[in-house]
Amino acid sequence: MKGNPNSGGVWAPCLSYSDGKFWLIYTDVKVVDGAWKDCHNYLVTCDTINGEWGEPIPLNSSGFDASLFHDTDGKKYLLNMLWDQRIDRHSFGGIVMQEYSDKEQKLIGKPKVIFKGTERKLTEAPHLYRIGNYYYLLTAEGGTRFEHAATIARSANIEGPYEVHPDNPILTSWHAPENPLQKCGHASIVQTHTDEWYLAHLTGRPIHPDDDSIFQQRGYCPLGRETAIQKLYWKDGWPYVKGGKEGSLEVDAPSIPETMFEDTYPEVDEFEDATLNINFQTLRIPFTEKLGSLTQVPNHLRLYGHESLTSTFTQAFVARRWQSLHFEAETAVAFYPENFQQAAGLVNYYNTENWTALQVTYDEELGRILELTICDNFSFSQPLKNKIVIPREVKYVYLKVNIENEKYYYLYSFNKEDWHKIDIALESKKLSDDYIRGGGFFTGAFVGMQCQDTSGHHIPADFRYFRYKEK
Fold first, then answer.
1. Could you tell me which of 257, 61, 238 has the C-alpha nearest to residue 166?
2. Residues facing residue 129 across a β-bridge
3. Which keywords belong to this entry (predicted)?
4. Whose CB has fewer CB within 10 Å in the chain, the N or C terminal residue?
5. Helix (H, G, I), strand (E, B) or coil at 348
6. Is residue 255 part of a domain?
7. Domain check: are 362 and 414 in the same one?
8. Omega of the bond leading into 161 within 30 degrees of 0 (cis)
């Protein structure tokens, strides 16, 4: 995915289980703007959910949000939205279906548009189910912003025609601006073994800064897309959301024993393992020896300086999602830059055009310094009026960020005890799906560790730990 645009890459992975193995469909999106939507759909399979996945099988490139339907007669079908680049047509051309041959590992027969969508338009995210005597086609419509919705239609024939739900859409928060759950849509149906039905769907929880403009009264979602669940009931052969189509904050749990899951992330990660914690992610490329090491310096994450935070190619950047609007993150870095093109530190990031970074870097007159850099829709600033000089004897520079809902602040220390707050209030909304240029994307904000060396010498930075604690 090296070189993929902001908010490109893997979209809408769809996991299913059939014939004794797991099937994972996903889209790799190469172009997000303009008349064309270059994207490629792939299939990988695995006998166990935590095993070794097979090599990706290329399927098609006609649109995104692909899913695989396993019919009761043994046949399999790929569904995806159909992208139409023609100027005089709507770019969302409906839901297209084509049979997949597992034996030949390719699509067979001809693709067919089985559903053009409703007047809400922007029909995408198809999931097909065989329930009773009908095929039920669940899609998302209205776009992935606040108008988002879930539409369902049914047919006795897999190829249609499909009849739309009498009270469509079955889920949307567009008409309920006071609901904390906004952008409800892009859903999937689950039937438990106790014969209870649920709808898993995406949502966003916006913040509402005092300076909300008339154009953004619904707020901003720094946490990006989140997952919610609603309970379904059936009436006259159609599913309905219990409690109303706008979605509820609390739903009845299924009649099964409660399962407790251990946290997947310790409050403090001291990098004792040879692999990164599952919550950490890298941009576009995997974490390899080219980017860094967890063994070169024991109990440290070493990152080798690569390209800047504005690059879509090779960034040495390890980060995790904001999962709350009230948390603090902290790290300590040993870094000895030799020129101003080398920097390492703590970063809060949305994409290459929207981020802030508190970094150790170099000044020709002062030596090692701390610099705060802000990238606001690709407009850059460094607001510190007085340079923060790092004492020569200091090895680790401690960096912290406090997220306080609508605002966040950086802090630093040279001994981990005496913390100094940088009195510059940064706005959480500027790391949101709704603030970025173009809008309508969904990754949310990340916080993490980064090292860059645009001089090309790949100087290393050693991070002693990473702490993430929700308040």
1. 238
2. 136
3. Glycosidase, Hydrolase
4. C
5. strand
6. no
7. yes
8. yes
Number of compact structural domains in the chain = 2
301 located within any domain: yes
The per-type count for the chain, helices as H runs and strands as E runs, is 0, 34
Integer angstrom CA distances of residue 252 from 198, 233, 236, 348, 391: 10, 12, 22, 36, 57
Based on the domain organization, do 276 and 403 belong to the same domain? yes
Domain holding 363, by residue range, is 268-470
Stretch (H or E) spanning 328: strand 326-334
148-192 pLDDT tens trace:
999 999 999 999 999 999 999 999 999 999 999 999 999 999 999
- The CATH number for 221's domain is 2.115.10.20
Which amino acid is present at 423? Answer: D
Would you say residue 372 lies in a domain?
Answer: yes
| pLDDT score, position 437 | 86
CB of 449 closer than 8 Å to CB of 333: yes
Residues 372 and 413 in one domain: yes
One domain for residues 229 and 284 = no
User: Average pLDDT over the chain, rounded to whole?
Assistant: 96
Q: Tell me: the pLDDT tens digits for 192-240?
A: 999 999 999 999 999 998 766 655 679 999 999 999 999 999 999 999 9
CA angle 121, 80, 169 (to 5 degrees): 40
Question: Do 237 and 272 share a structural domain?
Answer: no
Taking Cα atoms as reference points, which of 175, 172, 110 lies closest to residue 141? 172
Whether residues 216 and 307 fall in one domain: no
Q: 151 near 140, Cβ under 8 Å?
A: yes
- CA–CA dist 114, 97 (Å, integer): 7
pLDDT digits (tens, 9 = 90+) for 284-320: 999 999 999 999 999 999 999 999 999 999 999 999 9
SS3 assignment, position 430: helix
- Could you report the per-residue pLDDT of 365-411, keeping only the tens digit for each? 999 999 999 999 999 999 999 999 999 999 999 999 999 999 999 99
What letter does residue 419 receive in the DSSP assignment? -
Three-state DSSP at 240 gives strand
